[in-house]
Design goal:
The chain is α/β, with parallel strands linked by helices. It has one domain: NAD(P)-binding Rossmann-like Domain (Rossmann fold). It contains five helices and seven strands, in the order E-H-E-E-E-H-E-H-E-H-H-E. It has a seven-stranded parallel beta sheet, with helices on both faces. The radius of gyration is 17 Å and the shape is globular. The mean pLDDT is about 95.
Length: about 210
């Protein structure tokens, strides 16, 4: 059975992704704050985390002992909003730093800590965002979210050039508008060869999303 590690796949859209991965034949190591929901599912090893307190010392418990076929970072973390930029507003710096750790540093350390479980055909992906190229005034207040997504795009690309595995990003567009989005994403990942997938960012229909044009 194929093995997948997915973060943030316990509820909402992430739950749909996990369900589609199971249907596609994966055993899922699910890193989530909603582990209880999956406690009785034989195809899931639910690992409970508190995103607000998770730190680098917890990385070891997130890594399976078996070889990994797919690792997918679906979690999000944001500490800023438009309201925080009003006069006399302050942002708790620890929350801001935790958001950066969870969003960007956690995937980096999970990959490096899993090096002996990752093969050249292992696929490792990030859920990214259209906002890294087209931020709007309505959303620009979530500056750390946008910045973290762009950082992850750069991390993905850097790994693709240096690490012997397949690294990619997904731009999901407007989540919630496409009822088949989770199914299409899993199909894209499973049916695209590593040579075509590596280093690219893709919409769910397989079209490439280029951030440098």
């Amino acid at each position: 059975m194929k093995r997948c590690v997915i973060t943030g796949g316990g509820s909402k859209f992430g739950q749909q992704l996990t369900e589609r991965l199971i249907q596609a034949g994966y055993f899922v190591d699910l890193i989530t704050s909603h582990a209880d929901t999956w406690a009785n599912n034989p195809s899931v090893n639910a690992i409970s985390v508190d995103w607000k307190t998770l730190d680098v010392r917890d990385i070891g418990k997130l890594i399976p002992k078996q070889s990994i076929d797919l690792m997918f970072f679906n979690h999000n973390s944001v500490s800023l909003s438009s309201a925080k930029f009003k006069k006399n507003k302050l942002q708790n710096i620890k929350d801001w730093q935790q958001s950066y750790f969870v969003s960007c540093q956690l995937p980096f350390y999970m990959i490096q800590s899993s090096a002996n479980k990752i093969q050249p055909d292992t696929k490792i992906g990030w859920m990214l965002s259209e906002l890294i190229k087209h931020p709007t005034d309505l959303q620009i207040g979530a500056a750390d979210y946008i910045g973290n997504k762009f950082t992850n795009a750069c991390i993905m690309r850097s790994f693709s050039l240096n690490f012997p595995a397949c690294f990619f990003g997904i731009n999901p567009g407007a989540i919630g508008q496409d009822l088949n989005l989770a199914q299409d994403i899993v199909h894209l990942i499973d049916h695209t060869d590593v040579g075509s997938l590596n280093g690219g960012i893709f919409y769910s229909d397989g079209t490439k999303f280029n951030i440098d044009k």
